Amino acid sequence: MLFLDIETQNDWVNGDSFKIKDLKISFVGVINGDTGEELGFWEKELDSLGELLRKGDTVVHYNGFTFDMPVLANYLGDSITDIPQIDLMVAAYKTIGFRPKLEDLAMATLGHGKNGSGADAVKYWAAGDTNSLQKLRDYCIQDVRVTKELYEFGEEEGYIKYYDRNGFVTEVQIDWSTGEKITEKTNVDVISLF
Q: To pair with 151 at 20 to 30 A between CA atoms, which of 90, 99, 108, 185?
């Protein structure tokens, strides 16, 4: 199992429209779920990432069906989206009825969260100096750690916590498999995202 998060060089908003094809990757963070090894890939290293993803069993991400994997497909081809995946955001949405932010789930469930925002990552990339690029890497890897910790907590405890619409912390049972996309290779139908 591989946990993944991407950061982009440019903002995902272009005027009022969202254009995946216009996004360029700056950095991709990956954690090997078996070994705990933290890996990083800059834009020029994405071929190596593609090899790793194709060898992995399942890719776990947060909002990856609609963001991370389609942006990766800009570089690695559409077949990269056929890899078995679990999108924690989809499972949370199906369970609680709205799309919570990763930060909110992490804070409510784990007591800690991310160390910035995607807008910070774009600024780090634009600055381009060694210190800023290290901050970009650190930010992305922290997102992957939070994703992995949230997944593991839900698997081990059988529940997660979230902030309801009134701001109260609420506990709910979670089954991450409800956010699963299974490829035809496994002879199982793809589970509907919504």
A: 185
pLDDT in tens, 76-117: 999 998 999 999 999 999 999 999 999 999 999 999 988 777
Tokens describing residue 60 = 């776990």
> Whole-prediction pTM value?
0.88
pLDDT at 186 over 50: no
Q: Under a CB-based contact definition with an 8 Å cutoff, are residues 127 and 83 in contact?
A: no
Residue 60: phi, psi to the nearest 5? -110, 130
Could you give the angle at the alpha carbon of 93 between the alpha carbons of 90 and 95, nearest 5°? 110
- Cβ-in-10-Å burial (0-12, 13-18, 19+) of 192 comes to exposed
Q: 63, 39 in Cβ contact below 8 A?
A: no
Q: Which of 160, 184, 179 is nearest to 171 (CA)?
A: 160
